[in-house]
């Protein structure tokens, strides 16, 4: 297989965030401020990414607005010719800062939504007053006509509010709504029992999304990420390992996906030391699970192997104990029973489960 | 809402959706929120005519003339392509 150039890059500018969502996809071992890359290192990484073929850049975190140089970074990305998307909770985006981001060439904002009411949203995000500030930011975005996607992270505690979530997306002038059911990586794995939706909620969600999608076609586009554990087949994680996208963590490690550091036998090169092109094409970590040759017979002999590439490597490791195994979410995986067990354990504990909130790193 | 374009509709790319040269892979891409679509020659011919000023009928006529192709065929191709973009809100319409 010849390796194609990457299309998208996720720049995790910082792990710092005023919120502490219990499903945060950041690793459980968070990096502190003192390890973060300098402005110039990021700016240079953006130029390297564009030269390599990256078209879309996602400025993410943590909360990217926690970086004082966010406007400079946005300008650098824009000048490198990248389509620049800001993935944010909105906290830290003042009207003045939004003006500056707009002037710096920001193309699009993806605003996260923790819940549809202040009570729920602030409880999930663990940040009092967060919902109200987010709504003010959303209004400022709408006034400016900045293209907006609302990213509603959904789980047991807010899936029943889906109708209201959809209405809010329309009211806020979003063009796109991501109904993203929590994926169990990072902090979410510590909160399975508290977050896993029920099968009934999952079925209702699928119906509601399909209905709203048809009703709002041309007004609001949907992207639906169903909960993994109830699916028959896994997702094509990252569009295939080392195939479409890459991540840079706050301290400069270049990763095939944001959870890749959970695979302990892989070593990841750092953008401070190694050119991005060499990392993408030649590093052992990026080549480890490229293509489908490494997969077991279950996948090799399956008609879906070019559809999902055997699913997620991090999930295979976390649940089956082998990063090269068939993603256990798959009904055809010999380890699928473990997913069913996780589900029934989570359901048994659900009512008494409390959140383990993400802890903010303090240097 | 119906996604079909009327002859007098003026399609346009909304803010946050734009055409760009893909200098690594060659050809043109349509860049949109969290999506990049590689365009073939037909897609490129259509979208470079989507200016916000030209009506749907004018775009179809221009393409039919340029490529000396039957107008009906062109019209249904353009209609299908623009509707698919409109469904994702990658394209809007000025009446
Ligand atoms: S998921 Fe929550 S805690 Fe994690 S970065 Fe996003 S807003 Fe912050
Ligand atoms: S067996 Fe492998 S290739 Fe087939 S659906 Fe399951 S994960 Fe995908």
TrEMBL record, chain A:
Catalytic activity of the protein: [PQQ precursor protein] + S-adenosyl-L-methionine = E-Y cross-linked-[PQQ precursor protein] + 5'-deoxyadenosine + L-methionine + H(+)
Binding site for [4Fe-4S] cluster: 17, 21, 24
GO molecular function: 4 iron, 4 sulfur cluster binding; cyclase activity; iron ion binding; oxidoreductase activity; S-adenosyl-L-methionine binding
GO biological process, one term: pyrroloquinoline quinone biosynthetic process
Keyword Oxidoreductase: yes
PROSITE patterns for this protein: MOAA_NIFB_PQQE (PS01305), RADICAL_SAM (PS51918)
Enzyme class name: oxidoreductase
Cofactor binding description: Binds 1 [4Fe-4S] cluster. The cluster is coordinated with 3 cysteines and an exchangeable S-adenosyl-L-methionine.
Keyword Ribonucleoprotein: no
Pathway assigned in UniProt: Cofactor biosynthesis; pyrroloquinoline quinone biosynthesis
Cofactor: [4Fe-4S] cluster
Function: Catalyzes the cross-linking of a glutamate residue and a tyrosine residue in the PqqA protein as part of the biosynthesis of pyrroloquinoline quinone (PQQ).
Family: Belongs to the radical SAM superfamily. PqqE family.
Protein name: PqqA peptide cyclase
Species of the source: Marimonas arenosa
Automatic annotation (TrEMBL), chain B:
Keyword Glycoprotein found: no
UniProtKB keywords: PQQ biosynthesis
InterPro entries, alphabetized: PQQD, PqqD_bac, PqqD_sf
GO biological process: pyrroloquinoline quinone biosynthetic process
Keyword Heme: no
Pathway: Cofactor biosynthesis; pyrroloquinoline quinone biosynthesis
A Pfam family hit: PqqD
Residue ranges of coiled coil: none
Signal peptide positions (record): none
Subunit annotation: Monomer. Interacts with PqqE.
Name of the protein in its database record: Pyrroloquinoline quinone biosynthesis peptide chaperone PqqD
Species: Marimonas arenosa
Organism lineage: Bacteria, Pseudomonadati, Pseudomonadota, Alphaproteobacteria, Rhodobacterales
Gene label: pqqD
């Amino acid at each position: 297989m010849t390796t194609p150039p990457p299309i998208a890059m996720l720049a995790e500018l910082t792990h710092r965030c005023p919120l502490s969502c219990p499903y945060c996809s950041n690793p459980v071992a968070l990096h502190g401020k003192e390890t973060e890359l300098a402005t110039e290192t990021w700016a240079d990484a953006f130029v390297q990414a564009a030269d390599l073929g990256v078209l879309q850049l996602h400025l993410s975190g943590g909360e990217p607005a926690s970086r004082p140089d966010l406007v400079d970074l946005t300008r650098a990305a824009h000048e490198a010719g990248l389509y620049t998307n800001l993935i944010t909770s909105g906290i830290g985006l003042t009207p003045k800062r939004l003006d500056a981001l707009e002037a710096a060439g920001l193309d699009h904002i993806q605003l996260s939504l923790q819940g549809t009411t202040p009570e729920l949203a602030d409880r999930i995000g663990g940040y009092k007053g967060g919902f109200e500030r987010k709504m003010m930011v959303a209004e400022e975005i709408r006034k400016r006509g900045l293209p907006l996607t609302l990213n509603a992270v959904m789980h047991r505690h807010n899936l029943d509010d889906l109708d209201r979530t959809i209405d809010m997306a329309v009211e806020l002038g979003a063009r796109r709504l991501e109904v993203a059911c929590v994926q169990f990586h990072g902090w979410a794995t510590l909160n399975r029992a508290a977050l896993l939706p029920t099968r009934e909620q999952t079925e209702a969600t699928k119906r509601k999304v399909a209905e709203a999608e048809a009703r709002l076609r041309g007004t609001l586009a949907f992207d639906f990420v169903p909960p993994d554990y109830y699916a028959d087949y896994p997702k094509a994680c990252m569009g295939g390992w080392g195939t479409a996208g890459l991540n840079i963590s706050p301290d400069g490690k270049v990763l095939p996906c944001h959870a890749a550091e959970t695979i302990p036998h892989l070593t990841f090169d750092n953008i401070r030391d190694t050119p991005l092109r060499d990392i993408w094409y030649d590093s052992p970590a990026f080549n480890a699970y490229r293509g489908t040759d490494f997969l077991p017979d279950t996948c090799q002999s399956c008609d879906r192997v070019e559809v999902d590439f055997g699913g997620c490597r991090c999930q295979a490791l976390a649940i089956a104990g082998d990063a090269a195994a068939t993603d256990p979410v798959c009904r055809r995986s010999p380890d699928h029973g473990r997913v069913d067990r996780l589900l029934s354990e989570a359901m048994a504990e659900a009512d008494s489960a409390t959140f383990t909130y993400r802890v903010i790193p303090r240097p | 809402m119906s996604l079909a374009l009327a002859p007098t509709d003026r399609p346009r790319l909304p803010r946050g959706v734009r055409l760009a040269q893909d200098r690594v892979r060659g050809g043109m891409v349509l860049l949109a929120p969290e999506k990049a679509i590689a365009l073939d020659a037909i897609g490129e011919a259509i979208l470079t005519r989507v200016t916000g000023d030209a009506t749907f009928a004018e775009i179809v006529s221009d393409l039919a003339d340029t490529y000396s192709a039957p107008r009906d065929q062109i019209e249904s191709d353009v209609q299908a392509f623009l509707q698919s973009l409109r469904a994702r809100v990658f394209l809007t319409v000025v009446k």
